[in-house]
């Protein structure tokens, strides 16, 4: 289930191609498309390839986030800043961006469903989005039948330990395709443990069959994560 790429660059090419196809399918069948972008150390190479994909009508694409730190949009820690700088440029500047902070009304997120593609990274603790181990509300946030689409995550968890907002598992699974990008031997081991049944947040998307999930891995820790 884990697709292996020799370099972070090769992974970025494959991820951008897959995401572009998912968005193109949405545009063709429904006249609009929605991408859930992610933060993390270095998804930038994926965004830089995706934004120059020929033929995508970005004016009909909505981009939102899997999670966000509760900081100003221009703060270095903001996922929104990364997406604006690395994805929403050139032709992709025409896309409509829906930030998660300040936290949007539930109806706004509901109106984006179903997502055409969800892009996720994974931490070495097995977290996805900001569904973090140690959060007392984590079981509720990982409930696929839960009521909420976007939830608050208290400070003191994750790195940096800032307050956050996150899509829930219910929201992430309201999608047509999920792309999980990981790099380095440590994260491959985490993914393998989750696939083997260990109770980690990432297992919630791996241990389901309703939404296709691609797990893309490269050995370079500088690759997308």
TrEMBL record:
Record key words, sorted: Hydrolase
GO biological process, one term: carbohydrate metabolic process
Its job: Hydrolysis of 6-phosphogluconolactone to 6-phosphogluconate.
Gene name tied to this protein: pgl
Keyword Glycosyltransferase recorded: no
UniProt protein name: 6-phosphogluconolactonase
Documented EC number(s): 3.1.1.31
Catalytic activity: 6-phospho-D-glucono-1,5-lactone + H2O = 6-phospho-D-gluconate + H(+)
Record CDD domains: 6PGL
Enzyme class per UniProt: hydrolase
């Amino acid at each position: 289930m884990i697709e292996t790429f020799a370099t972070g660059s090769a992974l970025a090419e494959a991820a951008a191609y897959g995401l572009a196809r998912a968005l193109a399918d949405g545009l063709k069948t429904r006249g609009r498309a929605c991408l859930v972008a992610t933060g993390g150390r270095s998804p930038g190479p994926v965004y830089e390839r995706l934004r120059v994909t020929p033929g995508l009508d970005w004016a009909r694409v909505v981009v939102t986030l899997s999670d966000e730190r509760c900081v100003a949009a221009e703060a270095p820690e903001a996922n929104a800043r990364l997406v604006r700088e690395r994805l929403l440029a050139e032709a992709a500047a025409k896309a409509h961006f829906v930030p998660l902070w300040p936290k949007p009304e539930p109806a706004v997120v509901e109106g984006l469903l179903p997502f055409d593609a969800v892009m996720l990274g994974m931490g070495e603790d097995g977290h996805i989005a900001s569904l973090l181990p140690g959060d007392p509300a984590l079981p509720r946030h990982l409930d696929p039948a839960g009521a909420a689409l976007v939830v608050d995550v208290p400070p003191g968890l994750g790195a940096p330990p800032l307050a956050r907002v996150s899509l829930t598992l219910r929201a992430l699974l309201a999608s047509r395709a999920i792309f999980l990008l990981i790099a380095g031997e440590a994260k491959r081991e985490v993914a393998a443990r989750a696939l083997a049944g260990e109770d980690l947040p990432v297992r919630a998307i791996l241990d389901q069959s309703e939404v296709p999930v691609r797990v893309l891995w490269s050995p370079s820790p500088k690759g997308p994560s």
